[in-house]
Specification:
The protein is built from ten helices and four strands, in the order ααααββααααββαα. It has 446 residues and is of the alpha+beta class. The chain has a domain of 72 residues. It has a four-stranded antiparallel β-sheet, with no helix packed on it. Strand 3 and strand 4 form a beta hairpin. The longest helix is centred in the N-terminal third of the chain and has 67 residues. The chain is elongated and about 130 Å long. The two termini are 33 Å apart. 25% of the residues are buried.
Length: 446
């Protein structure tokens, strides 16, 4: 889409927002059942407050650029004057004009680069806002993925606590029966009842979490009235990716990060604005065309004149303050760029450590899950042979291991997504993740 078309569409949305929103509500895709992560991510570029704010920022920056660009365009001015003379005192002015009306057309032909610098500075701010828009698109995908994973974890946690509460109730019930046989004391029964009540609270809390996470996902997808009932388990190809050296990732981020690009354009804009302020008193050549009609005591007179006007300000009292203000803006923009670069380097290092730790923990949890599965099979076999076995406890342990592994996998997937976003490698127009392509490392996904 060309920029002119983009401006028209954005202006139309802002000017007639309520009508557009109502129409969008009607045309929104209905969430499928089960909802998939791929479908959820396909909605990332739909109208959403996070993106609309960036749209407005781009439109505002572009309108400022257009305003500066139009300052040297053709100007048309209506000129009307009324005049009166005292004939008793100024007999020689008897033929002075009484009424004058006309049009003055002017056009700045050349100002030796001053306006071009101002337009370039404003255009670089447009570029900065457009890079911020790309970053917002990436964060939308990150927010959708995180909200999706939170729903899956809430479901797993509910299953875990529901299983644990059932086991707790069985143990409590058995303790009551054995008390009747004199094999359990009141203290034993009360302890098991207390544990059952604790698990019961956790179970209801997890049930509430199921709804709240679904409501959050619906809000993130901009469909507050469509709470998804079931979600498909996604295939996370990023989990087996190999991690490049942190210095290579920091270099990629320095070259490709959207926030850095936006900050760099802000610095360029401030530099160009400073040049424009220093050239504020450049000479200027204007073309002026005037057409006037005069009503006098002797009738009507028409006059047409054309002129080229060369002007040069020998002194402008506000130039020094304008230069100082632009210089301060430049210092601020450079400081913000340095801050973005510093923060990015630290964030990349933190993500590098996080991915490394989560990958190691994933291996550990995989072994634990295998152990819990074998333990459950053993308990089930003993139970079927009517040998004393705590089958319920083994099932709870397996649920806990499954939840821990899923939580670790989702955290790892999100960490990779954040890393891809910060290094500029997150595909914004496709659903898959683009692996970090670093020489000497193998990062192909399955």
């Amino acid at each position: 889409m060309g920029w002119s078309n983009y401006k028209v569409l954005t202006f139309f949305y802002l000017a007639f927002g309520s009508h557009v929103v109502n129409a969008a509500e009607v045309s929104k895709k209905v969430l499928p059942d089960p909802l998939t992560l791929e479908f959820a991510l396909s909605l990332a570029d739909e109208a959403h407050p996070d993106l609309l704010i960036q749209d407005a920022n781009i439109l505002n920056a572009q309108s400022n650029k257009d305003l500066i660009d139009s300052s040297t365009g053709i100007g048309v001015q209506l000129d009307i004057g009324l005049y009166a003379t005292d004939e008793d005192r100024f007999q020689s002015f008897k033929n002075r004009d009484h009424v004058r009306a006309g049009v003055i057309v002017s056009k700045t032909l050349y100002d030796f680069g001053h306006t071009n610098d101002r337009v370039s500075s404003a255009g670089q701010l447009v570029d900065a806002e457009q890079w911020k828009y790309q970053q917002a698109r990436g964060y939308r995908r990150l927010a959708i993925s995180e909200a999706y994973f939170n729903v899956l974890l809430a479901d797993l946690q509910f299953s875990q606590y529901n299983e644990a509460m059932s086991v707790g109730f069985v143990n409590f019930d058995k303790a009551k029966d054995r008390r009747e046989l004199g094999k359990r004391t009141d203290l034993d029964v009360l302890q098991r009842e207390s544990e059952y009540q604790r698990l019961r609270v956790l179970r209801y809390q997890s049930e509430n979490l199921q709804r709240s996470t679904r409501a959050k996902l619906a809000e993130v997808l901009n469909r507050p009235n469509q709470l998804p009932s079931s979600l498909a388990i996604p295939k996370l190809n990023a989990l087996d990716r190999k991690l490049a050296e942190v210095e290579q990732l920091q270099k990629l981020a320095q070259e490709n990060n959207y926030d850095i690009k936006a900050a760099e354009y802000a610095v360029k804009s401030a530099e160009t604005a400073l040049t424009a302020a220093r050239n504020q008193n450049n000479p200027k050549i204007d073309a002026i065309l005037t057409a006037h009609g005069y009503e006098t005591d002797f009738g009507s007179v028409d006059e047409l004149t054309a002129a080229l006007n060369f002007s040069y300000d020998l002194y402008q009292p506000d130039q020094d303050s304008a230069i100082a203000a632009k210089l301060a803006n430049l210092y601020s923009a450079r400081a913000q760029l340095n801050n973005v670069e510093s923060t990015l380097r630290q964030t990349i290092l933190q993500l590098w450590h996080e991915i490394e730790e989560l990958s190691v923990k994933r291996e550990s949890l995989s072994v634990l899950l295998e152990l819990r599965e074998l333990k459950l099979e053993e308990s089930r076999a003993l139970y079927e042979m009517e040998v004393k076995a705590d089958l319920g406890f083994s099932m709870v342990e397996l649920s806990e291991a499954q939840y821990a592994q899923a939580k670790n996998d989702y955290q790892l997937a999100l960490a990779w997504t954040r890393l891809d976003l910060l290094t500029g490698n997150l595909k914004l127009n496709e659903l898959e993740y683009k692996p970090v392509d670093v020489k000497g490392s193998s990062n192909e996904t399955d």
